[in-house]
Amino acid sequence: MAFATVLNTFCASLGCSNKELAESCGISMSALSRYRNGKRTPRAGSDVINQLAGGISKIAQERGVASASSEVAVRDALRNGLVNVQPLGPSFSARVDSLMKLLGVKNADVAVPLHLDSSYISRIRRGERTPNDKKRFAGVVAQVAALRCMERGMLDEVVSLVGAAESQWKADQLDIDNVGVLSEVIARWLLGNQVVESDIAAVDTLLRDIDNRYWQEVLDKSRNSKSVLSCAIKSGERHSERPVFFCGENFMWRAEMAFLEGASECGAKNLFMSSDMPALETVMSPENMARYQQGVLELIDKGCHVTVVHSTDRPLRETLQSLQMWVPLYMTGKVTPLYLEGATSRLFCHVNNVCECCAMASEAVRGHEEAGRYYLTFNPEDIEYYRSKMDFILEQTSVLLELYRNDDEEGMRKFEREDALRQATGRGREIRAGQYDNLRIMLYQGDCVVVYSNHPLQHRIVIRHPKLRYVVSHMA
How many Cα neighbours within 13 Å face the side chain of 341? Predict the structure, then answer.
Protein backbone atom coordinates (compact mmCIF):
# COMPACT_ATOMS: atom_id res chain seq x y z
CA MET A 1 0.00 0.00 0.00
CA ALA A 2 1.03 3.61 -0.62
CA PHE A 3 2.20 5.72 2.33
CA ALA A 4 -1.04 7.75 2.65
CA THR A 5 -3.10 4.57 2.54
CA VAL A 6 -1.00 2.93 5.27
CA LEU A 7 -1.25 6.04 7.44
CA ASN A 8 -5.00 6.35 6.93
CA THR A 9 -5.49 2.67 7.75
CA PHE A 10 -3.76 3.18 11.11
CA CYS A 11 -5.84 6.31 11.77
CA ALA A 12 -9.07 4.44 11.00
CA SER A 13 -8.12 1.61 13.38
CA LEU A 14 -7.40 4.11 16.16
CA GLY A 15 -10.55 6.17 15.61
CA CYS A 16 -8.62 9.32 16.46
CA SER A 17 -8.89 12.83 15.05
CA ASN A 18 -6.14 14.63 13.16
CA LYS A 19 -5.69 16.90 16.17
CA GLU A 20 -5.17 13.98 18.58
CA LEU A 21 -2.70 12.24 16.31
CA ALA A 22 -0.78 15.41 15.45
CA GLU A 23 -0.35 16.21 19.14
CA SER A 24 0.74 12.66 19.91
CA CYS A 25 3.29 12.72 17.07
CA GLY A 26 4.57 16.21 17.72
CA ILE A 27 3.84 17.50 14.21
CA SER A 28 1.45 20.15 12.91
CA MET A 29 -2.11 19.29 11.87
CA SER A 30 -1.54 20.83 8.44
CA ALA A 31 1.49 18.59 7.84
CA LEU A 32 -0.43 15.52 9.00
CA SER A 33 -3.33 16.42 6.71
CA ARG A 34 -0.99 16.66 3.72
CA TYR A 35 0.52 13.26 4.56
CA ARG A 36 -2.97 11.74 4.83
CA ASN A 37 -4.28 13.15 1.55
CA GLY A 38 -1.10 12.23 -0.34
CA LYS A 39 -0.04 15.80 -1.16
CA ARG A 40 3.23 15.27 0.69
CA THR A 41 5.31 12.15 1.34
CA PRO A 42 8.18 12.13 3.87
CA ARG A 43 11.65 10.91 2.94
CA ALA A 44 12.37 7.33 3.95
CA GLY A 45 15.05 8.36 6.45
CA SER A 46 13.34 11.41 7.92
CA ASP A 47 12.43 11.84 11.58
CA VAL A 48 8.77 12.22 10.56
CA ILE A 49 8.49 8.44 10.14
CA ASN A 50 9.69 7.91 13.72
CA GLN A 51 7.38 10.65 15.02
CA LEU A 52 4.36 9.15 13.29
CA ALA A 53 5.19 5.62 14.43
CA GLY A 54 5.67 6.77 18.02
CA GLY A 55 2.47 8.78 18.09
CA ILE A 56 0.37 6.03 16.52
CA SER A 57 1.68 3.31 18.83
CA LYS A 58 1.16 5.55 21.88
CA ILE A 59 -2.52 6.12 21.08
CA ALA A 60 -2.95 2.43 20.16
CA GLN A 61 -1.60 1.34 23.55
CA GLU A 62 -3.87 3.80 25.35
CA ARG A 63 -6.93 2.52 23.45
CA GLY A 64 -6.03 -1.14 23.40
CA VAL A 65 -5.61 -1.41 19.61
CA ALA A 66 -3.22 -4.35 19.30
CA SER A 67 -2.70 -4.01 15.53
CA ALA A 68 -0.96 -0.63 15.96
CA SER A 69 0.61 -0.91 19.41
CA SER A 70 4.09 -1.94 18.25
CA GLU A 71 6.12 1.13 17.31
CA VAL A 72 8.59 -0.99 15.32
CA ALA A 73 5.82 -2.67 13.31
CA VAL A 74 4.13 0.67 12.60
CA ARG A 75 7.45 2.21 11.51
CA ASP A 76 8.14 -0.72 9.15
CA ALA A 77 4.66 -0.48 7.64
CA LEU A 78 5.03 3.26 7.03
CA ARG A 79 8.46 2.76 5.45
CA ASN A 80 7.08 0.02 3.20
CA GLY A 81 4.51 2.55 2.01
CA LEU A 82 7.38 4.61 0.62
CA VAL A 83 8.62 1.80 -1.63
CA ASN A 84 7.97 2.03 -5.38
CA VAL A 85 6.87 5.64 -5.46
CA GLN A 86 9.45 6.95 -7.94
CA PRO A 87 7.92 8.57 -11.04
CA LEU A 88 8.10 6.48 -14.22
CA GLY A 89 7.39 9.43 -16.49
CA PRO A 90 8.76 12.97 -16.39
CA SER A 91 8.25 14.61 -12.99
CA PHE A 92 6.41 17.88 -12.49
CA SER A 93 9.71 19.76 -12.03
CA ALA A 94 11.19 18.19 -15.18
CA ARG A 95 8.16 19.24 -17.21
CA VAL A 96 8.30 22.81 -15.93
CA ASP A 97 12.03 22.98 -16.66
CA SER A 98 11.76 21.53 -20.18
CA LEU A 99 8.89 23.86 -21.08
CA MET A 100 10.65 26.98 -19.80
CA LYS A 101 13.89 26.03 -21.58
CA LEU A 102 12.07 25.36 -24.84
CA LEU A 103 10.37 28.76 -24.86
CA GLY A 104 13.17 30.75 -23.23
CA VAL A 105 11.03 31.65 -20.23
CA LYS A 106 13.15 33.12 -17.41
CA ASN A 107 12.66 32.40 -13.73
CA ALA A 108 11.72 36.04 -13.13
CA ASP A 109 8.93 35.78 -15.75
CA VAL A 110 7.22 33.24 -13.52
CA ALA A 111 8.36 34.55 -10.14
CA VAL A 112 6.85 38.04 -10.51
CA PRO A 113 3.17 37.02 -11.04
CA LEU A 114 3.53 34.39 -8.30
CA HIS A 115 5.16 36.86 -5.86
CA LEU A 116 8.06 34.47 -5.34
CA ASP A 117 11.82 34.76 -5.44
CA SER A 118 13.53 33.71 -8.69
CA SER A 119 15.87 31.43 -6.75
CA TYR A 120 12.84 29.53 -5.44
CA ILE A 121 11.65 28.96 -9.03
CA SER A 122 15.11 27.62 -9.82
CA ARG A 123 14.91 25.12 -6.95
CA ILE A 124 11.49 23.96 -8.17
CA ARG A 125 12.91 23.39 -11.66
CA ARG A 126 15.72 21.29 -10.17
CA GLY A 127 13.24 19.22 -8.18
CA GLU A 128 14.52 20.49 -4.83
CA ARG A 129 11.21 22.12 -3.89
CA THR A 130 7.52 21.46 -4.55
CA PRO A 131 5.11 24.41 -4.83
CA ASN A 132 2.65 24.74 -1.96
CA ASP A 133 -0.13 25.22 -4.49
CA LYS A 134 0.95 23.16 -7.48
CA LYS A 135 -2.20 23.87 -9.47
CA ARG A 136 -1.80 27.65 -9.20
CA PHE A 137 1.92 27.40 -9.99
CA ALA A 138 1.21 25.29 -13.10
CA GLY A 139 -1.50 27.73 -14.17
CA VAL A 140 0.84 30.71 -14.07
CA VAL A 141 3.65 28.85 -15.85
CA ALA A 142 1.12 27.73 -18.50
CA GLN A 143 -0.16 31.27 -19.04
CA VAL A 144 3.35 32.67 -19.45
CA ALA A 145 4.31 29.78 -21.76
CA ALA A 146 1.19 30.12 -23.93
CA LEU A 147 1.82 33.82 -24.49
CA ARG A 148 5.49 33.20 -25.31
CA CYS A 149 4.50 30.35 -27.64
CA MET A 150 2.16 32.56 -29.66
CA GLU A 151 4.58 35.49 -29.72
CA ARG A 152 7.36 33.32 -31.16
CA GLY A 153 5.22 31.10 -33.37
CA MET A 154 6.39 27.95 -31.59
CA LEU A 155 3.12 26.01 -31.49
CA ASP A 156 4.61 23.02 -33.33
CA GLU A 157 7.43 22.77 -30.81
CA VAL A 158 5.03 22.87 -27.85
CA VAL A 159 2.80 20.26 -29.50
CA SER A 160 5.85 18.04 -29.95
CA LEU A 161 6.84 18.43 -26.30
CA VAL A 162 3.38 17.60 -25.01
CA GLY A 163 2.87 14.72 -27.44
CA ALA A 164 6.27 13.19 -26.65
CA ALA A 165 5.16 12.62 -23.06
CA GLU A 166 2.04 10.72 -24.18
CA SER A 167 -0.26 13.39 -22.86
CA GLN A 168 -3.98 12.79 -22.76
CA TRP A 169 -4.14 15.50 -25.44
CA LYS A 170 -3.56 14.17 -28.94
CA ALA A 171 -1.09 16.22 -30.96
CA ASP A 172 -3.53 16.64 -33.86
CA GLN A 173 -6.02 18.28 -31.47
CA LEU A 174 -3.61 21.07 -30.54
CA ASP A 175 -3.97 23.21 -33.66
CA ILE A 176 -5.00 26.13 -31.46
CA ASP A 177 -4.83 29.89 -31.97
CA ASN A 178 -6.42 30.77 -28.65
CA VAL A 179 -4.01 31.59 -25.82
CA GLY A 180 -6.53 30.70 -23.12
CA VAL A 181 -7.20 27.24 -24.52
CA LEU A 182 -3.50 26.58 -25.09
CA SER A 183 -2.76 27.68 -21.53
CA GLU A 184 -5.31 25.16 -20.22
CA VAL A 185 -3.78 22.39 -22.33
CA ILE A 186 -0.28 23.13 -21.04
CA ALA A 187 -1.45 23.31 -17.42
CA ARG A 188 -3.18 19.94 -17.71
CA TRP A 189 -0.03 18.46 -19.19
CA LEU A 190 2.12 19.85 -16.39
CA LEU A 191 -0.18 18.46 -13.69
CA GLY A 192 -1.86 15.39 -14.99
CA ASN A 193 0.53 12.73 -16.14
CA GLN A 194 2.97 11.57 -13.51
CA VAL A 195 2.82 7.83 -12.94
CA VAL A 196 4.45 5.83 -10.16
CA GLU A 197 4.93 2.10 -9.86
CA SER A 198 2.37 1.85 -7.07
CA ASP A 199 -0.27 3.39 -9.39
CA ILE A 200 0.41 0.74 -12.01
CA ALA A 201 0.26 -2.00 -9.40
CA ALA A 202 -3.06 -0.68 -8.10
CA VAL A 203 -4.62 -0.57 -11.59
CA ASP A 204 -3.32 -4.08 -12.29
CA THR A 205 -4.87 -5.31 -9.02
CA LEU A 206 -8.20 -3.78 -9.98
CA LEU A 207 -8.11 -5.41 -13.41
CA ARG A 208 -7.18 -8.79 -11.94
CA ASP A 209 -10.07 -8.52 -9.49
CA ILE A 210 -12.40 -7.95 -12.45
CA ASP A 211 -10.70 -10.80 -14.32
CA ASN A 212 -11.27 -13.15 -11.38
CA ARG A 213 -14.86 -11.96 -10.91
CA TYR A 214 -14.24 -10.84 -7.35
CA TRP A 215 -17.11 -8.40 -7.86
CA GLN A 216 -19.56 -11.28 -8.21
CA GLU A 217 -18.39 -12.69 -4.87
CA VAL A 218 -18.91 -9.29 -3.26
CA LEU A 219 -22.42 -8.98 -4.67
CA ASP A 220 -23.39 -12.53 -3.68
CA LYS A 221 -22.07 -12.05 -0.15
CA SER A 222 -23.94 -8.76 0.26
CA ARG A 223 -27.20 -10.19 -1.05
CA ASN A 224 -26.98 -13.14 1.33
CA SER A 225 -26.43 -10.93 4.37
CA LYS A 226 -28.97 -9.38 6.71
CA SER A 227 -30.21 -5.91 5.72
CA VAL A 228 -28.06 -3.04 7.02
CA LEU A 229 -30.62 -0.30 6.30
CA SER A 230 -32.53 -0.57 9.53
CA CYS A 231 -30.96 1.34 12.42
CA ALA A 232 -29.06 4.42 11.29
CA ILE A 233 -31.70 6.98 12.36
CA LYS A 234 -34.46 6.94 14.90
CA SER A 235 -38.02 6.29 13.79
CA GLY A 236 -39.34 9.67 14.87
CA GLU A 237 -36.67 11.51 12.87
CA ARG A 238 -37.47 9.97 9.51
CA HIS A 239 -40.50 12.08 8.73
CA SER A 240 -39.62 15.23 10.64
CA GLU A 241 -39.15 18.42 8.67
CA ARG A 242 -36.35 19.41 11.06
CA PRO A 243 -32.84 18.38 9.94
CA VAL A 244 -31.09 15.51 11.70
CA PHE A 245 -27.51 16.49 12.55
CA PHE A 246 -24.51 14.14 12.73
CA CYS A 247 -21.20 15.10 14.24
CA GLY A 248 -18.49 13.63 16.42
CA GLU A 249 -16.78 10.28 16.15
CA ASN A 250 -17.84 8.18 13.15
CA PHE A 251 -20.23 10.93 12.02
CA MET A 252 -19.40 10.33 8.35
CA TRP A 253 -20.34 6.67 8.59
CA ARG A 254 -23.55 7.29 10.53
CA ALA A 255 -24.68 10.11 8.24
CA GLU A 256 -24.04 8.22 5.01
CA MET A 257 -25.94 5.19 6.28
CA ALA A 258 -28.79 7.40 7.53
CA PHE A 259 -29.20 8.86 4.05
CA LEU A 260 -29.27 5.40 2.45
CA GLU A 261 -31.83 4.27 4.98
CA GLY A 262 -34.07 7.29 4.33
CA ALA A 263 -33.89 6.64 0.58
CA SER A 264 -34.70 2.95 1.11
CA GLU A 265 -37.69 3.62 3.34
CA CYS A 266 -39.40 5.86 0.78
CA GLY A 267 -38.60 3.59 -2.16
CA ALA A 268 -36.36 6.05 -3.98
CA LYS A 269 -35.95 5.37 -7.70
CA ASN A 270 -33.20 7.88 -8.45
CA LEU A 271 -30.41 8.68 -6.04
CA PHE A 272 -27.58 11.16 -6.63
CA MET A 273 -24.39 11.40 -4.58
CA SER A 274 -21.56 13.92 -4.90
CA SER A 275 -18.69 14.54 -2.50
CA ASP A 276 -15.25 16.09 -2.43
CA MET A 277 -14.68 15.03 1.18
CA PRO A 278 -11.71 12.71 1.75
CA ALA A 279 -12.55 9.34 0.24
CA LEU A 280 -14.77 7.38 2.63
CA GLU A 281 -12.45 4.42 2.16
CA THR A 282 -9.67 6.30 3.96
CA VAL A 283 -11.66 7.10 7.09
CA MET A 284 -14.03 4.14 7.51
CA SER A 285 -13.08 0.72 8.78
CA PRO A 286 -13.22 -2.13 6.22
CA GLU A 287 -16.25 -3.53 8.05
CA ASN A 288 -18.19 -0.29 7.80
CA MET A 289 -17.22 0.14 4.16
CA ALA A 290 -18.59 -3.34 3.42
CA ARG A 291 -21.85 -2.36 5.11
CA TYR A 292 -21.99 0.88 3.15
CA GLN A 293 -21.46 -1.06 -0.07
CA GLN A 294 -24.20 -3.47 0.95
CA GLY A 295 -26.56 -0.58 1.69
CA VAL A 296 -26.12 0.86 -1.82
CA LEU A 297 -26.68 -2.61 -3.30
CA GLU A 298 -29.91 -3.01 -1.32
CA LEU A 299 -31.22 0.18 -2.90
CA ILE A 300 -30.17 -1.00 -6.37
CA ASP A 301 -31.93 -4.33 -5.87
CA LYS A 302 -35.10 -2.44 -4.93
CA GLY A 303 -35.08 -0.73 -8.32
CA CYS A 304 -33.14 2.44 -7.51
CA HIS A 305 -30.69 3.89 -10.04
CA VAL A 306 -27.63 5.51 -8.44
CA THR A 307 -25.60 8.33 -9.97
CA VAL A 308 -22.32 8.90 -8.15
CA VAL A 309 -20.06 11.89 -8.83
CA HIS A 310 -16.47 11.14 -7.87
CA SER A 311 -14.03 13.93 -7.10
CA THR A 312 -10.74 13.16 -8.86
CA ASP A 313 -8.84 16.18 -7.52
CA ARG A 314 -7.08 13.84 -5.11
CA PRO A 315 -4.16 11.41 -5.29
CA LEU A 316 -4.74 8.72 -7.89
CA ARG A 317 -4.36 5.98 -5.29
CA GLU A 318 -7.42 7.36 -3.46
CA THR A 319 -9.42 7.28 -6.68
CA LEU A 320 -8.37 3.67 -7.24
CA GLN A 321 -9.21 2.78 -3.64
CA SER A 322 -12.67 4.21 -4.18
CA LEU A 323 -13.07 2.23 -7.41
CA GLN A 324 -12.22 -0.95 -5.52
CA MET A 325 -15.41 -0.42 -3.53
CA TRP A 326 -17.59 0.84 -6.38
CA VAL A 327 -16.68 -1.51 -9.25
CA PRO A 328 -18.88 -4.39 -7.96
CA LEU A 329 -21.79 -1.92 -7.86
CA TYR A 330 -20.96 -0.67 -11.37
CA MET A 331 -21.21 -4.26 -12.60
CA THR A 332 -24.93 -4.31 -11.77
CA GLY A 333 -25.49 -1.86 -14.60
CA LYS A 334 -27.56 0.28 -12.20
CA VAL A 335 -24.92 2.87 -11.30
CA THR A 336 -23.81 5.81 -13.44
CA PRO A 337 -20.22 6.81 -12.51
CA LEU A 338 -19.24 10.40 -13.26
CA TYR A 339 -16.34 12.56 -12.14
CA LEU A 340 -15.83 16.20 -11.35
CA GLU A 341 -12.46 17.80 -11.97
CA GLY A 342 -11.02 21.17 -11.11
CA ALA A 343 -13.77 22.21 -8.67
CA THR A 344 -12.17 21.29 -5.35
CA SER A 345 -11.60 24.16 -2.94
CA ARG A 346 -8.35 24.33 -0.98
CA LEU A 347 -10.31 25.48 2.07
CA PHE A 348 -13.72 23.78 2.08
CA CYS A 349 -15.06 20.35 1.18
CA HIS A 350 -18.70 19.38 0.71
CA VAL A 351 -21.25 16.60 0.33
CA ASN A 352 -24.47 16.90 -1.68
CA ASN A 353 -26.68 13.77 -1.74
CA VAL A 354 -30.33 13.79 -2.78
CA CYS A 355 -33.20 11.50 -3.81
CA GLU A 356 -36.98 11.96 -4.07
CA CYS A 357 -37.65 12.02 -0.33
CA CYS A 358 -34.52 13.17 1.48
CA ALA A 359 -31.27 15.05 1.09
CA MET A 360 -28.01 15.14 2.95
CA ALA A 361 -25.37 17.86 2.95
CA SER A 362 -22.14 18.62 4.72
CA GLU A 363 -19.32 21.08 4.71
CA ALA A 364 -16.04 21.10 6.56
CA VAL A 365 -12.72 22.89 6.54
CA ARG A 366 -10.24 20.82 4.57
CA GLY A 367 -7.79 19.07 6.86
CA HIS A 368 -10.25 19.31 9.77
CA GLU A 369 -13.02 17.11 8.43
CA GLU A 370 -13.53 15.47 11.82
CA ALA A 371 -14.85 18.83 13.08
CA GLY A 372 -17.40 19.10 10.27
CA ARG A 373 -21.08 18.30 10.41
CA TYR A 374 -23.54 16.38 8.24
CA TYR A 375 -27.25 17.06 8.24
CA LEU A 376 -30.10 15.00 6.84
CA THR A 377 -33.43 16.56 5.87
CA PHE A 378 -36.83 15.29 4.76
CA ASN A 379 -38.24 18.78 4.17
CA PRO A 380 -39.62 19.11 0.59
CA GLU A 381 -38.23 22.62 0.17
CA ASP A 382 -34.76 21.46 1.24
CA ILE A 383 -34.96 18.49 -1.12
CA GLU A 384 -35.87 20.77 -4.02
CA TYR A 385 -32.93 23.05 -3.22
CA TYR A 386 -30.39 20.24 -3.08
CA ARG A 387 -31.79 18.66 -6.23
CA SER A 388 -31.33 21.97 -8.05
CA LYS A 389 -27.81 22.17 -6.69
CA MET A 390 -27.15 18.63 -7.94
CA ASP A 391 -28.39 19.62 -11.41
CA PHE A 392 -25.74 22.36 -11.51
CA ILE A 393 -23.08 19.86 -10.41
CA LEU A 394 -24.09 17.34 -13.06
CA GLU A 395 -23.66 19.98 -15.77
CA GLN A 396 -19.93 20.10 -14.90
CA THR A 397 -19.25 16.35 -14.80
CA SER A 398 -17.65 13.94 -17.25
CA VAL A 399 -18.13 10.20 -17.65
CA LEU A 400 -15.69 8.19 -15.53
CA LEU A 401 -16.41 4.93 -17.32
CA GLU A 402 -19.14 3.28 -19.35
CA LEU A 403 -20.25 -0.29 -18.75
CA TYR A 404 -22.05 -2.40 -21.36
CA ARG A 405 -23.56 -5.87 -20.79
CA ASN A 406 -24.80 -8.35 -23.37
CA ASP A 407 -28.21 -8.41 -21.66
CA ASP A 408 -28.58 -4.75 -22.69
CA GLU A 409 -29.05 -5.08 -26.44
CA GLU A 410 -29.42 -1.37 -27.17
CA GLY A 411 -26.35 -0.48 -25.12
CA MET A 412 -24.26 -3.23 -26.70
CA ARG A 413 -25.21 -2.08 -30.20
CA LYS A 414 -24.11 1.45 -29.28
CA PHE A 415 -20.79 0.10 -27.98
CA GLU A 416 -20.18 -1.99 -31.12
CA ARG A 417 -20.79 1.00 -33.41
CA GLU A 418 -18.36 3.19 -31.48
CA ASP A 419 -15.82 0.40 -31.10
CA ALA A 420 -15.81 -0.25 -34.85
CA LEU A 421 -14.90 3.40 -35.42
CA ARG A 422 -12.11 3.20 -32.84
CA GLN A 423 -10.62 0.08 -34.39
CA ALA A 424 -10.82 1.60 -37.86
CA THR A 425 -8.33 4.29 -36.84
CA GLY A 426 -5.65 1.63 -36.31
CA ARG A 427 -4.24 3.57 -33.35
CA GLY A 428 -5.14 1.08 -30.64
CA ARG A 429 -2.62 -1.17 -28.92
CA GLU A 430 -3.14 -4.11 -26.60
CA ILE A 431 -1.97 -3.81 -23.00
CA ARG A 432 -0.34 -6.82 -21.29
CA ALA A 433 -1.53 -9.28 -23.89
CA GLY A 434 -2.16 -12.76 -22.48
CA GLN A 435 -1.59 -11.73 -18.85
CA TYR A 436 -5.30 -11.85 -17.93
CA ASP A 437 -7.37 -15.02 -18.23
CA ASN A 438 -10.68 -13.45 -19.24
CA LEU A 439 -9.82 -9.86 -20.17
CA ARG A 440 -8.40 -8.09 -23.19
CA ILE A 441 -7.27 -4.48 -22.65
CA MET A 442 -6.99 -2.04 -25.56
CA LEU A 443 -5.59 1.48 -25.26
CA TYR A 444 -6.72 4.13 -27.74
CA GLN A 445 -4.37 7.03 -27.02
CA GLY A 446 -6.11 10.32 -26.37
CA ASP A 447 -9.52 8.65 -26.32
CA CYS A 448 -10.16 5.74 -23.96
CA VAL A 449 -9.23 2.31 -22.62
CA VAL A 450 -11.54 -0.56 -23.52
CA VAL A 451 -11.75 -3.68 -21.34
CA TYR A 452 -13.27 -6.71 -23.11
CA SER A 453 -14.47 -9.48 -20.79
CA ASN A 454 -15.13 -13.13 -21.66
CA HIS A 455 -17.29 -13.65 -18.57
CA PRO A 456 -20.89 -14.82 -19.15
CA LEU A 457 -22.27 -11.26 -19.26
CA GLN A 458 -19.45 -10.25 -21.61
CA HIS A 459 -18.95 -6.86 -20.01
CA ARG A 460 -17.37 -4.10 -22.04
CA ILE A 461 -15.87 -1.31 -19.93
CA VAL A 462 -14.85 1.98 -21.55
CA ILE A 463 -12.57 4.08 -19.31
CA ARG A 464 -12.31 7.74 -20.26
CA HIS A 465 -10.70 9.34 -17.21
CA PRO A 466 -7.38 10.93 -18.37
CA LYS A 467 -5.28 9.88 -15.36
CA LEU A 468 -6.47 6.28 -15.48
CA ARG A 469 -5.85 6.12 -19.22
CA TYR A 470 -2.36 7.48 -18.71
CA VAL A 471 -1.50 4.90 -16.06
CA VAL A 472 -2.70 2.12 -18.39
CA SER A 473 -0.48 3.52 -21.15
CA HIS A 474 2.55 2.74 -18.93
CA MET A 475 1.52 -0.88 -18.29
CA ALA A 476 3.97 -2.60 -20.65
Answer: 16
